[in-house]
Amino acid sequence: MTDKPVVVISGAGGEIGHGLIQRIAAEGNYSILALDLRPLDPDLAKLCAETVEGSILDTALLEALASKYRVAGIFHLAAMLSTSGEAKPELAHAVNVQGTLNLLTFANREANNAGANVRFLFPSSIAVYGAPSISAKEAAGRITEEQFLMPTTMYGVNKLSCEHLGRYYTHHYRQLSSDRDPFHVDFRSIRFPGLISAFTVPSGGTSDYAPEMLHAAAKGEPYACFARPDTRIPFMAMPDAIDALMKLFEAPAEALTTTAYNVGAFSPSAEEVRLKTLEAFPGAEITYQNDVKRQGILDTWPADVDDSRARADWGWAPQYDFDRSFNEYLIPNIARRYALSGTTS
Ligand code: AKB
Protein backbone atom coordinates (compact mmCIF):
# COMPACT_ATOMS: atom_id res chain seq x y z
CA MET A 1 0.00 0.00 0.00
CA THR A 2 1.14 3.54 -0.59
CA ASP A 3 0.16 7.04 0.56
CA LYS A 4 0.52 8.61 -2.91
CA PRO A 5 -2.15 8.27 -5.59
CA VAL A 6 -1.52 5.19 -7.71
CA VAL A 7 -1.17 5.06 -11.47
CA VAL A 8 -1.33 1.76 -13.33
CA ILE A 9 0.96 1.31 -16.33
CA SER A 10 0.07 -1.62 -18.59
CA GLY A 11 2.73 -2.86 -21.01
CA ALA A 12 5.17 -1.24 -18.58
CA GLY A 13 8.21 -3.06 -19.97
CA GLY A 14 7.74 -1.70 -23.49
CA GLU A 15 9.42 1.25 -25.17
CA ILE A 16 7.15 4.00 -23.81
CA GLY A 17 6.95 2.31 -20.40
CA HIS A 18 10.69 2.68 -19.84
CA GLY A 19 10.67 6.44 -20.24
CA LEU A 20 7.32 6.93 -18.54
CA ILE A 21 8.27 5.02 -15.37
CA GLN A 22 11.49 7.02 -15.08
CA ARG A 23 9.65 10.32 -15.54
CA ILE A 24 6.81 9.56 -13.07
CA ALA A 25 9.26 8.21 -10.49
CA ALA A 26 11.50 11.29 -10.86
CA GLU A 27 8.57 13.65 -10.36
CA GLY A 28 7.47 11.70 -7.29
CA ASN A 29 3.74 12.56 -7.38
CA TYR A 30 2.41 9.04 -7.98
CA SER A 31 3.15 5.48 -6.97
CA ILE A 32 3.45 3.15 -9.93
CA LEU A 33 1.75 -0.20 -10.30
CA ALA A 34 3.44 -1.76 -13.33
CA LEU A 35 1.75 -4.55 -15.25
CA ASP A 36 3.44 -6.55 -18.00
CA LEU A 37 3.45 -10.08 -19.38
CA ARG A 38 7.16 -10.35 -18.70
CA PRO A 39 9.25 -9.50 -15.62
CA LEU A 40 10.24 -5.84 -15.57
CA ASP A 41 13.87 -4.79 -15.95
CA PRO A 42 15.14 -4.63 -12.30
CA ASP A 43 16.24 -0.97 -12.75
CA LEU A 44 12.67 -0.05 -13.63
CA ALA A 45 11.07 -2.37 -11.08
CA LYS A 46 12.79 -0.59 -8.23
CA LEU A 47 11.03 2.65 -9.26
CA CYS A 48 7.60 1.01 -8.90
CA ALA A 49 5.47 0.37 -5.81
CA GLU A 50 4.55 -3.02 -7.24
CA THR A 51 5.21 -4.93 -10.43
CA VAL A 52 2.76 -7.56 -11.57
CA GLU A 53 3.45 -10.19 -14.19
CA GLY A 54 0.18 -10.85 -15.93
CA SER A 55 -2.17 -10.15 -18.79
CA ILE A 56 -4.76 -7.42 -19.29
CA LEU A 57 -6.98 -10.24 -20.55
CA ASP A 58 -6.97 -11.78 -17.06
CA THR A 59 -10.04 -10.16 -15.49
CA ALA A 60 -9.53 -12.01 -12.17
CA LEU A 61 -6.10 -10.38 -11.91
CA LEU A 62 -7.59 -6.93 -12.64
CA GLU A 63 -10.25 -7.48 -9.98
CA ALA A 64 -7.61 -8.45 -7.43
CA LEU A 65 -5.68 -5.27 -8.23
CA ALA A 66 -8.84 -3.17 -7.99
CA SER A 67 -9.53 -4.44 -4.49
CA LYS A 68 -5.96 -3.72 -3.38
CA TYR A 69 -5.43 -0.19 -4.74
CA ARG A 70 -7.29 3.08 -5.24
CA VAL A 71 -6.23 3.97 -8.75
CA ALA A 72 -6.08 7.62 -9.83
CA GLY A 73 -4.97 7.06 -13.40
CA ILE A 74 -4.10 4.49 -16.03
CA PHE A 75 -1.53 4.62 -18.78
CA HIS A 76 -2.61 1.76 -21.01
CA LEU A 77 0.45 1.05 -23.14
CA ALA A 78 0.11 -2.70 -23.80
CA ALA A 79 -0.56 -3.45 -27.47
CA MET A 80 0.40 -5.59 -30.45
CA LEU A 81 1.81 -3.27 -33.13
CA SER A 82 1.02 -2.97 -36.81
CA THR A 83 3.39 -5.54 -38.31
CA SER A 84 2.92 -8.21 -35.60
CA GLY A 85 -0.82 -7.62 -35.72
CA GLU A 86 -0.94 -8.66 -39.37
CA ALA A 87 0.62 -12.05 -38.52
CA LYS A 88 -2.06 -12.77 -35.89
CA PRO A 89 -5.02 -10.44 -36.45
CA GLU A 90 -7.43 -12.22 -34.08
CA LEU A 91 -4.90 -12.23 -31.27
CA ALA A 92 -4.16 -8.55 -31.97
CA HIS A 93 -7.87 -7.77 -31.67
CA ALA A 94 -8.11 -9.66 -28.38
CA VAL A 95 -5.07 -7.93 -26.86
CA ASN A 96 -5.70 -4.50 -28.32
CA VAL A 97 -9.47 -4.18 -28.05
CA GLN A 98 -10.62 -6.68 -25.40
CA GLY A 99 -7.61 -5.72 -23.29
CA THR A 100 -8.58 -2.04 -23.52
CA LEU A 101 -12.22 -2.82 -22.73
CA ASN A 102 -11.12 -4.74 -19.63
CA LEU A 103 -9.06 -1.80 -18.43
CA LEU A 104 -11.85 0.69 -19.18
CA THR A 105 -14.20 -1.46 -17.08
CA PHE A 106 -11.56 -1.57 -14.34
CA ALA A 107 -11.15 2.23 -14.52
CA ASN A 108 -14.90 2.80 -14.38
CA ARG A 109 -15.18 0.64 -11.27
CA GLU A 110 -12.24 2.44 -9.68
CA ALA A 111 -13.83 5.83 -10.43
CA ASN A 112 -16.99 4.88 -8.59
CA ASN A 113 -15.18 3.24 -5.68
CA ALA A 114 -12.97 6.27 -5.20
CA GLY A 115 -15.63 8.90 -5.95
CA ALA A 116 -13.53 10.67 -8.59
CA ASN A 117 -13.11 10.36 -12.35
CA VAL A 118 -10.17 8.18 -13.38
CA ARG A 119 -7.90 9.53 -16.09
CA PHE A 120 -7.14 6.96 -18.77
CA LEU A 121 -4.23 7.79 -21.09
CA PHE A 122 -4.16 5.83 -24.30
CA PRO A 123 -1.37 5.95 -26.90
CA SER A 124 -3.24 5.76 -30.17
CA SER A 125 -1.36 5.99 -33.44
CA ILE A 126 -1.08 7.47 -36.91
CA ALA A 127 -2.11 3.92 -37.91
CA VAL A 128 -5.75 5.03 -37.46
CA TYR A 129 -5.34 6.85 -40.78
CA GLY A 130 -5.57 5.17 -44.15
CA ALA A 131 -4.87 7.37 -47.16
CA PRO A 132 -6.46 5.75 -50.23
CA SER A 133 -3.39 6.36 -52.46
CA ILE A 134 0.09 7.86 -52.40
CA SER A 135 -1.14 10.82 -54.42
CA ALA A 136 -3.95 11.46 -51.90
CA LYS A 137 -1.39 11.21 -49.08
CA GLU A 138 0.93 13.67 -50.79
CA ALA A 139 -1.88 16.08 -51.65
CA ALA A 140 -3.25 16.02 -48.09
CA GLY A 141 0.02 17.05 -46.38
CA ARG A 142 -0.67 17.70 -42.67
CA ILE A 143 -3.88 15.89 -41.91
CA THR A 144 -6.43 16.73 -39.22
CA GLU A 145 -7.95 14.30 -36.74
CA GLU A 146 -10.99 13.81 -38.99
CA GLN A 147 -9.34 12.94 -42.31
CA PHE A 148 -8.71 9.47 -43.77
CA LEU A 149 -10.08 7.48 -40.83
CA MET A 150 -9.99 4.27 -42.87
CA PRO A 151 -7.17 2.19 -41.34
CA THR A 152 -5.92 -0.80 -43.32
CA THR A 153 -4.12 -2.68 -40.52
CA MET A 154 -5.70 -4.66 -37.69
CA TYR A 155 -3.66 -2.50 -35.29
CA GLY A 156 -5.05 0.72 -36.83
CA VAL A 157 -8.59 -0.65 -36.75
CA ASN A 158 -8.06 -1.63 -33.10
CA LYS A 159 -6.64 1.77 -32.12
CA LEU A 160 -9.54 3.58 -33.76
CA SER A 161 -12.13 1.34 -32.13
CA CYS A 162 -10.46 1.83 -28.72
CA GLU A 163 -10.59 5.59 -29.22
CA HIS A 164 -14.35 5.20 -29.72
CA LEU A 165 -14.65 2.93 -26.68
CA GLY A 166 -12.83 5.52 -24.60
CA ARG A 167 -15.09 8.31 -25.87
CA TYR A 168 -18.14 6.14 -25.07
CA TYR A 169 -16.96 5.41 -21.51
CA THR A 170 -16.22 9.09 -20.97
CA HIS A 171 -19.42 10.61 -22.33
CA HIS A 172 -22.13 8.00 -22.83
CA TYR A 173 -21.57 4.99 -20.56
CA ARG A 174 -24.93 3.43 -19.60
CA GLN A 175 -26.66 6.53 -20.93
CA LEU A 176 -30.18 5.08 -20.62
CA SER A 177 -29.91 3.92 -16.99
CA SER A 178 -31.68 5.80 -14.23
CA ASP A 179 -28.89 4.79 -11.82
CA ARG A 180 -25.96 6.00 -13.92
CA ASP A 181 -22.76 6.16 -11.92
CA PRO A 182 -21.79 9.71 -10.95
CA PHE A 183 -18.11 9.20 -11.74
CA HIS A 184 -16.58 7.95 -14.93
CA VAL A 185 -13.51 7.25 -17.01
CA ASP A 186 -11.80 10.39 -18.31
CA PHE A 187 -10.27 9.00 -21.51
CA ARG A 188 -7.56 10.95 -23.36
CA SER A 189 -5.65 9.63 -26.34
CA ILE A 190 -2.70 10.75 -28.42
CA ARG A 191 -2.19 9.57 -31.98
CA PHE A 192 1.53 9.03 -31.81
CA PRO A 193 3.80 9.02 -34.85
CA GLY A 194 6.68 6.52 -35.07
CA LEU A 195 8.69 6.85 -31.86
CA ILE A 196 12.47 6.73 -31.66
CA SER A 197 14.21 5.98 -28.40
CA ALA A 198 17.92 6.01 -27.67
CA PHE A 199 17.53 3.28 -25.06
CA THR A 200 15.24 0.67 -26.59
CA VAL A 201 14.73 -0.81 -30.05
CA PRO A 202 11.12 -1.38 -31.08
CA SER A 203 9.78 -4.62 -32.50
CA GLY A 204 6.63 -5.48 -34.39
CA GLY A 205 5.96 -2.00 -35.77
CA THR A 206 6.02 -0.69 -39.34
CA SER A 207 7.73 2.58 -38.42
CA ASP A 208 10.61 0.50 -37.01
CA TYR A 209 12.90 1.14 -39.99
CA ALA A 210 14.10 4.49 -38.63
CA PRO A 211 15.11 3.33 -35.12
CA GLU A 212 16.44 0.02 -36.52
CA MET A 213 18.65 1.89 -39.00
CA LEU A 214 20.10 4.12 -36.33
CA HIS A 215 20.71 1.41 -33.72
CA ALA A 216 22.26 -0.91 -36.33
CA ALA A 217 24.62 1.86 -37.48
CA ALA A 218 25.70 2.54 -33.90
CA LYS A 219 26.38 -1.15 -33.37
CA GLY A 220 28.41 -1.33 -36.58
CA GLU A 221 25.92 -3.74 -38.16
CA PRO A 222 24.72 -3.53 -41.79
CA TYR A 223 21.06 -2.59 -42.23
CA ALA A 224 18.74 -3.11 -45.20
CA CYS A 225 15.86 -0.64 -44.90
CA PHE A 226 12.48 -2.15 -45.81
CA ALA A 227 10.96 1.24 -46.66
CA ARG A 228 11.50 3.09 -49.96
CA PRO A 229 13.88 6.08 -49.71
CA ASP A 230 11.05 8.56 -50.38
CA THR A 231 8.78 7.15 -47.64
CA ARG A 232 7.67 9.98 -45.39
CA ILE A 233 5.79 9.54 -42.12
CA PRO A 234 5.95 11.55 -38.88
CA PHE A 235 8.37 10.59 -36.10
CA MET A 236 9.04 11.80 -32.58
CA ALA A 237 11.88 11.42 -30.08
CA MET A 238 10.86 9.47 -26.98
CA PRO A 239 11.32 12.35 -24.46
CA ASP A 240 8.69 14.36 -26.36
CA ALA A 241 6.32 11.37 -26.37
CA ILE A 242 6.64 11.02 -22.59
CA ASP A 243 6.17 14.73 -22.21
CA ALA A 244 3.01 14.63 -24.33
CA LEU A 245 1.54 11.82 -22.21
CA MET A 246 2.25 13.66 -18.95
CA LYS A 247 0.98 17.00 -20.27
CA LEU A 248 -2.27 15.48 -21.44
CA PHE A 249 -2.60 13.47 -18.21
CA GLU A 250 -2.32 16.64 -16.15
CA ALA A 251 -4.47 18.90 -18.37
CA PRO A 252 -7.72 20.11 -16.76
CA ALA A 253 -10.75 18.30 -18.20
CA GLU A 254 -12.44 21.62 -19.05
CA ALA A 255 -9.61 22.49 -21.45
CA LEU A 256 -10.10 19.41 -23.63
CA THR A 257 -12.25 19.56 -26.73
CA THR A 258 -11.78 15.99 -27.99
CA THR A 259 -10.69 12.57 -26.74
CA ALA A 260 -8.13 11.98 -29.55
CA TYR A 261 -5.29 14.35 -30.43
CA ASN A 262 -2.66 14.45 -33.16
CA VAL A 263 0.87 15.36 -32.06
CA GLY A 264 3.67 16.12 -34.50
CA ALA A 265 7.39 16.72 -34.21
CA PHE A 266 9.25 16.05 -37.50
CA SER A 267 8.57 14.21 -40.73
CA PRO A 268 11.73 13.04 -42.50
CA SER A 269 11.88 10.74 -45.48
CA ALA A 270 13.65 7.39 -44.98
CA GLU A 271 16.53 8.78 -47.04
CA GLU A 272 16.81 11.85 -44.79
CA VAL A 273 17.03 9.50 -41.77
CA ARG A 274 19.72 7.48 -43.58
CA LEU A 275 21.77 10.60 -44.41
CA LYS A 276 21.48 11.91 -40.85
CA THR A 277 22.56 8.51 -39.50
CA LEU A 278 25.54 8.48 -41.88
CA GLU A 279 26.63 11.93 -40.62
CA ALA A 280 27.03 10.42 -37.16
CA PHE A 281 28.29 6.99 -38.22
CA PRO A 282 30.05 7.59 -41.57
CA GLY A 283 31.10 3.97 -42.00
CA ALA A 284 27.58 2.60 -41.57
CA GLU A 285 26.34 0.22 -44.23
CA ILE A 286 22.70 1.18 -44.87
CA THR A 287 21.05 -0.15 -48.00
CA TYR A 288 17.48 -0.49 -49.23
CA GLN A 289 15.57 -3.72 -49.68
CA ASN A 290 11.97 -2.74 -50.14
CA ASP A 291 9.32 -4.91 -48.51
CA VAL A 292 6.39 -4.16 -50.78
CA LYS A 293 3.79 -5.33 -48.28
CA ARG A 294 5.06 -3.32 -45.32
CA GLN A 295 5.55 -0.40 -47.73
CA GLY A 296 1.86 -0.70 -48.58
CA ILE A 297 1.05 0.07 -44.94
CA LEU A 298 3.48 3.01 -44.78
CA ASP A 299 1.94 4.49 -47.92
CA THR A 300 -1.45 4.74 -46.16
CA TRP A 301 -0.02 6.60 -43.15
CA PRO A 302 0.08 10.40 -43.34
CA ALA A 303 3.21 12.30 -44.31
CA ASP A 304 2.50 14.75 -41.48
CA VAL A 305 -0.20 15.67 -38.98
CA ASP A 306 -1.96 18.89 -38.01
CA ASP A 307 -1.59 19.07 -34.23
CA SER A 308 -3.07 22.54 -33.70
CA ARG A 309 -5.77 21.16 -31.39
CA ALA A 310 -3.24 19.66 -28.98
CA ARG A 311 -1.28 22.92 -29.06
CA ALA A 312 -4.37 25.00 -28.29
CA ASP A 313 -6.01 22.74 -25.68
CA TRP A 314 -3.11 21.51 -23.55
CA GLY A 315 -0.03 23.39 -24.68
CA TRP A 316 1.60 20.70 -26.80
CA ALA A 317 4.92 21.95 -28.20
CA PRO A 318 7.63 19.43 -29.15
CA GLN A 319 11.08 20.20 -27.79
CA TYR A 320 12.94 18.01 -30.28
CA ASP A 321 12.91 18.73 -34.01
CA PHE A 322 14.75 16.42 -36.43
CA ASP A 323 18.20 17.93 -35.89
CA ARG A 324 17.93 18.28 -32.12
CA SER A 325 16.53 14.74 -31.75
CA PHE A 326 19.52 13.27 -33.55
CA ASN A 327 22.26 15.65 -32.43
CA GLU A 328 21.39 16.05 -28.77
CA TYR A 329 19.34 13.00 -27.78
CA LEU A 330 19.64 10.00 -30.10
CA ILE A 331 23.20 9.98 -31.36
CA PRO A 332 25.08 10.78 -28.14
CA ASN A 333 23.00 8.37 -26.03
CA ILE A 334 23.03 5.54 -28.58
CA ALA A 335 26.76 5.91 -29.24
CA ARG A 336 27.47 5.85 -25.49
CA ARG A 337 25.18 2.91 -24.91
CA TYR A 338 26.81 0.60 -27.47
CA ALA A 339 30.33 1.80 -26.67
CA LEU A 340 29.73 0.90 -23.02
CA SER A 341 28.28 -2.49 -23.85
CA GLY A 342 31.19 -3.10 -26.23
CA THR A 343 28.82 -3.77 -29.14
CA THR A 344 30.36 -1.26 -31.55
CA SER A 345 32.80 -2.94 -33.87
C1 AKB B 1 3.83 0.84 -35.54
O1 AKB B 1 4.66 0.99 -36.44
O2 AKB B 1 2.99 -0.06 -35.53
C2 AKB B 1 3.84 1.84 -34.40
C3 AKB B 1 2.92 2.99 -34.67
C4 AKB B 1 3.23 3.95 -35.75
O3 AKB B 1 1.95 3.14 -33.99
N1 AKB B 1 5.16 2.30 -34.15
Describe what this molecule looks like in 3D:
Helix 2 links the parallel strand 2 and strand 3 (50-53). The protein is globular, with a radius of gyration of 20 Å. Helix content is 44%, strand content 16%. The chain has helices at 15-27, 42-45, 59-68, 82-87, 89-114, 134-140, 154-171, 209-219, 238-250, 270-280, 292-298, 308-314, 322-340, and strands at residues 6-10, 31-36, 50-53, 71-76, 118-125, 142-143, 185-192, 194-196, 223-225, 235-237, 260-262, 286-288, 304-305. The N and C termini lie far apart (47 Å). The strands form 4 sheets. Strands 3-2-1-4-5-7-11 form a 7-stranded parallel β-sheet, with helices on both faces. It has a two-stranded parallel ribbon with strand order 6-13. A two-stranded parallel ribbon has the order 8-10. The model has no long low-confidence stretch (mean pLDDT 96). It has 345 residues and is an alpha/beta fold. Helix 3 runs parallel beside helix 5, helix 5 runs parallel beside helix 7 (154-171) and helix 8 packs across helix 13. It has one domain: NAD(P)-binding Rossmann-like Domain (Rossmann fold). The site of 2-amino-3-ketobutyric acid has 11 residues, from loops.
